[in-house]
Amino acid sequence: MKYFLFAFCFLIIAITSQAQFKADLIKWTRDGNGMYENDNSSIVKTNLNTGEQKTILPATLLVANNKQIAVRDFSVSDNESIVLIFTNTARVWRYNTKGDYWFYHFPTKTLKQIGKDRPAQSLLYAKLSPNGELVAYVSQNNLYVEELVTGKSVVLTSTNNTKKLINGTFDWVYEEEFGCRDGFRWSADSKSIAYWQVDANKIRDYYMLNTTDSIYSRVIPVEYPKVGEQPSPVKIGVVAINTRQTVWMNIPGDAANNYLPRMEWSGANELIVQQLNRKQNESKLYFCNTTTGTAKEFYKENDKAFIDIKSRWNEDDPRGWEFVNGGKDFIWVSEKDGWRHLYKVNREGKETLLTIGNYDIATISAIDEANNEIYFIASPDNPIQRYLYKVKMDGKSKAVRITPAGYNGTNSYEVSPTAKFAMQSFSSRNVAPASQMVSLPSHKSIAGDDLLKTMTPVIRKNLEFFTITTDDGITMDGWMSKPNNYDSTKKYPVLLYVYSEPAATTVEDDFYAGNNFMFSGNMNAEGYFYVSFNNRGTPTLKGAEWRKSIYKQVGRINVRDQAMGMKKLLQQRSYLDTSRVAAWGWSGGGSTTLHLLFQYPELFKTGIAIAAVGNQLFYDNIYQERYMGLPQENKDDFIKGSPITYAKNLKGNLLYVHGTGDDNVHYSNAEVLINELIKYGKLFQFMAYPNRTHSINEGQGTFQHLMKLYTAFLKEKCPPGAR
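Structure (tokenized):
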């Protein structure tokens, strides 16, 4: 997730995330007792029991044609005989997922390129076969397999010269909204591969226009299903390596009105597949026979709103299926009882609730089958914090907190396969991000001194966390960053930071709370109050009702909560200047900013909206239909939830920013809204960034320019300091 609609608005992510390959954070050894690291293109192995480090593959051995191969990502075979190297990468929409692959073979001490007959930078998701003899990869929408010893490669699929037939990976919308990128899976015996095929031939292109890289413009088509348009038909097949013949899984239902977001091997000749209906409020699980293609439904769930999938509760990564008990059961997540809980489900669909109590789990961390336990992240007492817990997989036990007292804030963990070790990352409102390797379940630092003893808290007297209850009876978490040495008898401007949609929260107990990465300078020193709220519909840990109340209400209840929160805050804090109230946001936050200026002009005098959806009918089908339904059935909700509907009400100061090369929230959103503002004679400031994407960070000086523009506009229209 996304992951999704928004460009997540912390500085480090806004500047770098869309140019980075989303690699695993830690490469664990198979036994879970160690890890591999990339140390300046040398592969180093650390034994966590002894602390011993060993360079298993020095960078000096990764030289081809007298050039050093820069390791961007890598994987090590289970027997450590092969290291697969990913290099020379290029971006595919969000991440650098295509490039070149090499492998080093230790027994023969040889370095070879994979797919060397394919175009440069065209390989995606290369994976070694379980037996270590083959490697499979995707290139130009087809699936290939190659013998490591001979270098002989064959194509396993064929697009029949149809560019929009995609094998082994996904189209734009599956990647953006389901987190689906790697679209094939090796069988355990290395004899076959299961893969997705996306038929995007019926999906219309959205045409972006590159007008700067040549004296003639160049059209860039993107297969992009708008809300109300049918999804790309997707099917799953299993191809035999020796015959190159595919058996297609006969999953019931219209492929053009259903989604297949998850698939894994569940047996020697069997796949397990999740199917979502188009409205994403019905989920079915099937076992598919890979020899005959027959599919048997065994588990079904319905929801009055929408059903989240694994990419929402497992770090935007739908790969893997958490089987236990020798494949007889698996771990599943559901909100069916009003909370996001862990269940154990058997092959007949019978389920056992594992996380008993009125609280949400956030993500699954690890499964420790040896001790019949599962580790997960939750925060039963404070929805803006995160801690590691474990619970017995017996359906009778209470969860036990593993994160020790003192780590009050946001904790995340990368846990080893056997749950013996974990990399803990910690941050709080007063502690900068820090990490340590710990043993589990004792949570003892393997380096000696515990992180708590080495961290130096930053006393942020200017930062306040609070809750606020609106006149509608809605209680929201919030934070406020205050001016230095402010005088409570005077009046100060206040800036509201918003996102407000189901893809993200803005209020979490971490070190970035209260920081405005867009402001060039120091807001505290300049004399601004800076505020944010988590409204209804945001994915905070306050139960399913809180999260799903936004169904068919995007652009309404979330916007009202933000406005009513600000109204109440202005009433409670006499030092906030009601004549200098501003809001800003990016993507979904940009949409919310527009709504606040248009729907509540008496409250909000200034707004900065970046990469905003101006009309919900212009966004993609998976995201918008998940949270709003189908426009064929309730189009009025889409209209009432779109900023363009209220543009005629603009009274305040608006800075509107958009990249013309935004493949996510298309530039047409800006142009139709601009037309509406022109129609009603509304004056505003607009900035278009040529060929920039949703992150508006490409090109020398781009982000710095945006910061200057943002800061100058805010200071002019919502002047800082006391009055």
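The chain has a mean pLDDT of 94. The domain at 474-717 is CATH 3.40.50.1820 (Rossmann fold).
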